Amino acid sequence: MFASHCLSLRVPQTPDSPYLALMNQHPDDIVFVINPNAGHALHHRTLTAICLAACDQAGRVAHVVATRTPEEATETARQAHESGAAAIFGCGGDGSLSALLQGLPVGSDTALGAVPLGTANVWAYETNLPTTPMAAIAAQLAALDGIQGEPLWIDTGKVWSTREDGSIAEQRFLLMASWGLDAAAVEGFEHSQRRRRLKSWIGEPAYFVSAVQEALSRRPWPMSISLDGAAPFTVDVAMMTAGNTRMIGTWAEINPKATVVDGALDLMLIEGAPWRAIALTPLTLAGWLPQASGVRHLPFQRLEATPLRDAPPIQIDGDPGPATAYAIDVEPGALRVLCPEPTSAVLGG
Ligand SMILES: [Mg+2]
């Protein structure tokens, strides 16, 4: 079936076997990163067969790499970039894409693709990708070849934080970084087995349930914020989202004016008690959040934030981030992605 195109399949044999690096890879090949232990419905062998078949149809050579940790996925992306891979696909949710993004240098010619298999798949939703793996891969390979849509250079964001030893850490993001209630809701899954069970049962709405539970017990987070070097202002933060894209999950546009090609990130700042972010849900769903009282919409290229009491939790592309985060930068035109059907969230308008 795949006689015309060679392939390599690198799957660790046991949980303790060493990580297997990419081998025999050539420029213009396609790399897929899968996690055999992920909880999604597709068995990894079925998923591998789909990846290979889609590339075979497009006349591309596929390499499927099984990774068990985000660090291994990041390392695979770094290797794919160094060997000149045309694209690297994350098979999973937005966290899978985030792990690959960390391994791609700014301006890498290796495009980032998505095989949406996570709980929310926000990037795939924002860019209107087909929902089945085979169709999603085929459409993005068509974009790579300019047959349908095109590869696009988009902005990314970068969060700066300090480690325990005082050194500086950086983490790139594709979708958003968010301080306050939203991050507390994400963090809630780390602490509560009951909430994790709910998430596996009902999926994405479990985030809203977690946010309501957090809103009942959380106080606002006073912070000092400076945008693009201007004089800092002090504000009680309920929730503060630095958006590259528009959606929070796939249910509401929290940053309805954001685009990934304008060289800026959009700050959506909800002031006051955390429950205000819940109370504003109807306006958020209607796309009117920027006009609501006590809400500020402020595009920026660099944000610096200092907690004035407890550090608020932060989430970065849907996963908990470091509480010591102190700044966010935009990286204009830093990432090549495959957009078979560019939407307004990508191109604006
Ligand atoms: Mg933007």
Task: Write structural notes for this entry.
There is one protein chain. The protein is of the alpha+beta class. It folds into two domains: about 5-150, Rossmann fold, CATH 3.40.50; about 155-335, Tumour Suppressor Smad4, CATH 2.60.200.40. The chain has helices at about 45-60, 70-80, 95-100, 120-125, 135-145, 180-190, 195-200, 205-215, 275-280, 280-285, 345; strands at about 5-10, 30-35, 60-65, 85-90, 110-115, 150-160, 170-175, 175-180, 220-225, 235-245, 245-250, 250-255, 265-270, 295-300, 300-305, 315, 320, 325-340. Strands 6, 7, 8, 9, 10, 13, 14, 15, 16, 17 and 18 form an eleven-stranded antiparallel beta sheet that branches. The chain has a five-stranded parallel beta sheet with strand order 1-3-2-4-5, sandwiched between helices. Helix 1 (about 45-60) runs parallel beside helix 5 (about 135-145) and helix 7 packs antiparallel against helix 8. The radius of gyration is 20 Å and the shape is globular. The protein starts with 6 loop residues before the first strand and ends with a helix. Residues about 1-5 and about 10-20 have low confidence and may be disordered. Bound molecules: magnesium ion (MG). Magnesium ion (MG) binds next to strand 13.
